[in-house]
């Protein structure tokens, strides 16, 4: 490749790894990524590795120890900084602060404030001097976190306008540093109110915007308003590389590319990182490999199915919630069911992978009208996938997709009898929905009658009591039918 003039800086980046620490094609695994980083550091000592968020949550490797394993591995990998993404909040705000203290690298975000103190929980930016070149990195966290994690996790946090925060950071860093790098867990999804592209168009002066959240793979970056935007997909399938040349305070050249498992086929995993991952993994194995039950069928938790209709796994999970609580009925959101389970031996590890949020099972007293509103809320986009889609036990209902959203649910029964809008029912659900997550506003502030441990524990217990699972087809608790 053609060199620019001046000092060559290499920025390595990851985003949306979602705790994919282990090598599992096409994920390279963190030891392989560390091995790649070693090679880049050998080739150019002016190399820094950063992460753009959604690192600590998403697999049992992380969930079992509420994120600590990932921080330990990242410490060994010599990360320079991390921007918290929405999933960094999934173990609660206090846990996020604890994880940031376990890290030997800073968590940075310029658009977070703690409501009770008004203070910023993290440094908005850091400055790293590399071979005489000063690089300012500032973080941005998606305001979507306010509704993309359990609302209880963010009651004490405000997410301020990311464009305003970026403008302030550039004003503060310009003149002080040679290179300005934004680390945004912001993304480029059309549905996002302010995308990374919107931000760099509104705020000139950012040399590089390292992006995450939309899981976008930009193979050679994207130049917008003079800013090079780089984003490297998801799950550690690619390592992002940005090459910069800086001469007397000016960036003379910048370019981006990504490295995937094919390109890294001959790279040796970093031995220290590999042995750390192996030792964490083997300490978890006895728990994860414990058999819970046998299933004669695939339990379907695939994203497009559980967010758009009844599946046997949705039935099983809601049955478990009803059984552990003794409630009249159970309702849970399809978006909270994160994987399928293959037929055969079902392990605790499988269950934790399906239900990684550590959600609590909570029973609440609600009216029949609230139940109807909840089912309507899950059915607004039906048959298009939506995280809110309502899986049920003790309830049956029909959806008429020809009717407008909000009035398409009909023929609801509870415990075999037609729904009585004025009657009070005891319903088991999860703490995410009780807090109004996925727009289940009708569950907010309802009288709670009990808390019954976590959803994964309830499912384990239920499957153990069944011994063998053979829900061959779903039970038609939820069907599409005209009114
Ligand atoms: P990313 O930020 O990487 O895109 P994601 O895949 O989780 O992460 P979505 O596909 O939008 O993002 O998933 C969000 C859905 O996940 C929510 O609509 C909700 O159904 C579910 N969800 C998120 N947090 C929780 C939680 N704590 N408990 C239960 N369900 C949750
Ligand atoms: Zn993500």
TrEMBL record:
<dbReference type="GO" id="GO:0016787">
    <property type="term" value="F:hydrolase activity"/>
</dbReference>
<dbReference type="GO" id="GO:0030288">
    <property type="term" value="C:outer membrane-bounded periplasmic space"/>
</dbReference>
<keyword id="KW-0547">Nucleotide-binding</keyword>
<dbReference type="GO" id="GO:0009166">
    <property type="term" value="P:nucleotide catabolic process"/>
</dbReference>
<protein>
    <submittedName>
        <fullName>Multifunctional 2',3'-cyclic-nucleotide 2'-phosphodiesterase/5'-nucleotidase/3'-nucleotidase</fullName>
    </submittedName>
</protein>
<comment type="similarity">
    <text>Belongs to the 5'-nucleotidase family.</text>
</comment>
<keyword id="KW-0732">Signal</keyword>
<dbReference type="GO" id="GO:0000166">
    <property type="term" value="F:nucleotide binding"/>
</dbReference>
<keyword id="KW-0378">Hydrolase</keyword>
